[in-house]
Specification:
2 copies of one chain form a homodimer. Chain A contains 10 helices and 16 strands. With 385 residues, chain A is α/β, with parallel strands linked by helices. At the A-B interface, strand 7, strand 8, strand 9 and strand 10 of A face strand 7, strand 8, strand 9 and strand 10 of B. Chains A, B: One of its GO terms (molecular function) is oxidoreductase activity.
Chain lengths: 385, 385
């Protein structure tokens, strides 16, 4: 039985998500927007029966059993943690900081019977499912190098907001880079142990952002990850390079290439290509018959298509269940967990640190929450001596 | 009047060069090979009247006024400097070390009336000539980012040799990366001030290189360059990223992209594409009607095609002259000088240093020859105290 859905957010992803949910048979019962006006406007447009700007009104809504959170990163932790506390299943976007991500992990561990996934749609894209399968089967031999690139138009909103602010989770690294960090670790079964990166903000002001306001979030980012792993066949020792550039209007370029001792696999947009060493050039391994005509402004096609596949997987997870809140793990086993979300956030922060220090930074995933009073305690300690 | 040419080298570039020279009307008078056997074999194949393994026999040959040196990097300096000393014009490949490059600069400065160019053919490729022109005209607006990538099959020779040895100038960075370092500074009119890089040797042994022998030269390399410049319109502050991977059999991928505030230019292989922000997608700015069927093993097509253009420029420089050794500067004004060669070598060494240190390294071009006895002097100094 499919649960009723409450959607948080009125941005481009939330707008795409609603029809996808309905297409799979979910009923969207409630919509939350940052302002009453934003919520009303989108609820009317999409015909959603209930709208509000009070998060509790959605979280406590009796017909809502699955909560989808696609809002600005600084608000995500609070709503996700509360939703789990109320006993609702959660699909959400990434948090703003590693500390937030850690709090989400704590909540998810506390309610293991509830669904809690970070909705990185790329993991569900058929091209990447096939790539992961082929990597495991040894198509490329021993993995050596991964190279990912996303080029596209500006990620900034029409008006000043969190997308402009590095500290609020804006910027190419946090928004798009994080999905690649997650994807690459998923594809390889390995995690970054050291990273090096460079962030730049080339466009600090534009027609909408001017006066004393300046963009602080990155529109260009280049980083490398050295992967560690647990043995042969995994991505241990692999170098990953990621290039992001959002000063390139036009269609998104979204390319992920993995190179190994015996061949390579390349996902271009939503299609997968492969080439074995000694073979006759590149072969199309997985096409996309739906074509590329569906490009939506602000959202790369692989994310849009992946979102559709993720919603299908959610349907599969819920539909055979008798109880509205129960779900089967199988169909969503490949999803990014909150633990993965914490890892990704840790990498993102390490890349930012590296961009400031100019040095390789190690990736150390938090194992306990930092004491918010630590600075105070240290100050007291110093005074005592 | 076209000068007689002496060619040093029996490798793939020398083999391609001879027919190109003849195509423009040059007479190839003498060929030098590392061994008598190699020299004889190629001289017979190409119908060159004189061959030798003694460098002086070519340098002192009365019919040779232009010397083209395409040999292993550690031998280049010695022959280039000697050729200038004998009064011959020189086109050569890069040296093995910055110290060698510095000695070549000293010689070139001493004989300013002689032609002395480092034959980076990419500068002469029509796609890059057009790209440079369009950059100067402001096609991309204010330059922000350059991104270059070359992927291809192994650069190793069939048998063990300098290509396997990092210290002898082997490896992707030294062989191909250096041509991109040179090209990017030429395109932008700016030089790297700081670099960061990572080199890897994934294939340490193969069918031909085994036993106690191991490859030490890189087959994978990526590096970033932060460019300095002398004002607006130049590439000051631009980030360049270069990715080289020679574990990818099949056709070479050779792509150079420059992104600016108003658009971008992309050279794919020998063709140039452009896209202006707000325009209708990508446009072909310069095609290559000769197609890509001429791919030669071991040599990327842009290098081959550029070599042809460079030989044409050499003809233009020499042909209107009455004296066999005089030449006009105009047609070869865009060539890479020995000074450029020293800069490139300095960047290559800084990238290698960065790969070892893990840190950004600054690029400081040598201004005087390091004292070979410096270590000795320091040791004596220490003993005295």
């Amino acid at each position: 039985m499919l649960p009723g859905v409450g959607v948080f957010g009125t941005g481009s992803t939330a707008r795409m998500l609603v029809p996808l949910l309905r297409g799979e048979g979910f009923e969207v019962r409630a919509l939350w927007g940052r302002s009453e006006e934003e919520a009303r406007s989108l609820a009317q447009e999409l015909g959603i029966p209930f709208h509000t700007s009070q998060s509790d009104d959605v979280l406590l809504h009796p017909d809502v059993d699955l909560v989808c959170i696609y809002i600005s990163p600084p608000l995500t932790r609070q709503i996700a943690v509360k939703a789990l506390g109320i006993g609702k299943n959660v699909v959400c976007e990434k948090a703003a900081t590693a500390v937030d991500a850690f709090k989400m992990v704590t909540a998810a561990r506390y309610y293991p019977q509830l669904l809690s996934i970070v909705g990185n749609a790329l993991r569900f894209l058929p091209a990447f499912i096939a790539m992961r399968q082929l990597l495991a089967e040894g198509y490329v031999g021993e993995l050596q190098v991964c190279d990912a690139r996303v080029y596209g138009p500006s990620l900034l909103d029409q008006s000043y907001g969190w997308t402009c602010e590095e500290l609020m989770g804006g910027g190419g690294l946090h928004t798009v880079g994080s999905t690649l960090v997650d994807l690459l670790s998923h594809l390889m079964g390995a995690r970054a142990i050291r990273v090096h990166g460079l962030l730049r903000t080339f466009v600090r002001q534009n027609g909408a952002i001017r006066g004393i306001r300046r963009v602080t979030s990155d529109d260009f980012c280049f980083f490398q990850m050295l992967m560690g792993g647990s043995g042969p066949g995994t991505g241990s020792g692999v170098c990953c390079t990621v290039t992001l550039n959002f000063n390139m209007p036009g269609a998104f370029v979204h390319e992920v290439m993995v190179v190994g001792s015996a061949g390579r696999l390349i996902a271009r947009g939503t299609e997968l290509y492969g080439q074995r060493n000694g073979g006759n050039g590149e072969e199309l391994l997985l096409g996309d018959s739906e074509g590329t005509g569906q490009e939506v402004k602000d959202v790369p096609l692989p994310h849009l298509r992946g979102l559709g596949s993720m919603v299908k997987a959610l349907k599969d997870a819920f539909q055979a269940q008798e109880e509205r809140r129960s779900w089967a793990r199988g169909p969503v086993a490949m999803a990014s967990t909150f633990e993965d979300g914490l890892y990704v956030q840790t990498v993102v922060e390490a890349v930012k640190r590296s961009s400031r220090s100019g040095e390789w930074e190690s990736v150390e995933v938090m194992t306990q929450e930092p004491d918010p009073n630590q600075n105070l305690c240290e100050a007291l300690q110093r005074n005592k001596n």
